[in-house]
Structures are given as structure tokens and as C-alpha cells.
User: What shape does this take?
Amino acid sequence: MAIAADHAGVDFKADLCAWLHSQQKSVRDLGPSDSASVDYPDFAERVGRVVARGEAKLGILICGSGVGMSIAANKIDGIRAVLVTNPVQAALSRQHNNANVLCLGARLTGPDMAKACIEAFLTTPFDPGDDGRHRRRVARITELEARGDTDS
Assistant: This one.
């Protein structure tokens, strides 16, 4: 998976990377490496592009609230980024929405809760639904991306 943060989440990211490595997870850290002020859209784009190109199956983004990262990442075609605060949201985002980028707020989510959210996100598969409803809805999201800002 790919992971990045902004300056507000850099220490949180480092702790989560260490934990993920201890769980035998492959992690590609896309920065930053220090707490100098950076612009979160740049790091959302890094992770989003890596996931969209298939170089990583999933991504994790961390900023102070998680809001800015989720907004920025969702501007990239093929990215379904979700801001979560608990493991139920993380699991449902994968199960129903096939989310591929998890966003966390370093100032709002404690380390144990973040780990529980990540664990749920990584272990919950997409479920197309017994009647295909979840697959159909994700396809509709992709159609919205393809239409861009044009009216139809």
C-alpha cells in the first residue's frame, strides 16, 4: 500500500508505518519525512496516482482532520477516498463502496483507533451485493468521473 501525510500527520504516519511493517505489510511511504509545512494536495496526488495506476492496491492519507486529503484524493479518476473515524466505517467503505484510499485525521483519531480502522480497511473485501447493487453503484461513480463537469 502507499501512504503519505502532510506536516500535521507526519509523526502519526511514521508510527503507523512502523506498526504496518510489524504486521508484515508492504508499505510505500511517499512522504514527507519531516514536519516542515507542505501542501496536502501534493501528497494526496502522490498516493492517488500510485493507486490509480495500480502500483499499489490501496492507499492511506493523513492530515490534521483527514478532510483536505479526502477532498484532494477524490479529484483523481479511479480514486474512492474515504474519511473514517471508526472501523465500522472503514469496513463498510470497502464492502459497499470499494474504497481504495483511507483518510485519517491525526488531530482527531488516536493511534489505537487508527490501527483498528486500517485493519478493517485492509481485511474487508468488496462485496458486489447478491443482486450486484454495490457493483452497480460503484460503476455509477465511475460514470460520474468520466462525465467530468459537463451537464447531461
Summary: Residues 133-147 form the longest helix (15 residues). The helical segments are 10-22, 40-52, 67-73, 87-97, 111-123, 133-147. Strands lie at 2-5, 28-29, 59-63, 81-83, 101-105. The chain has a mean pLDDT of 96.
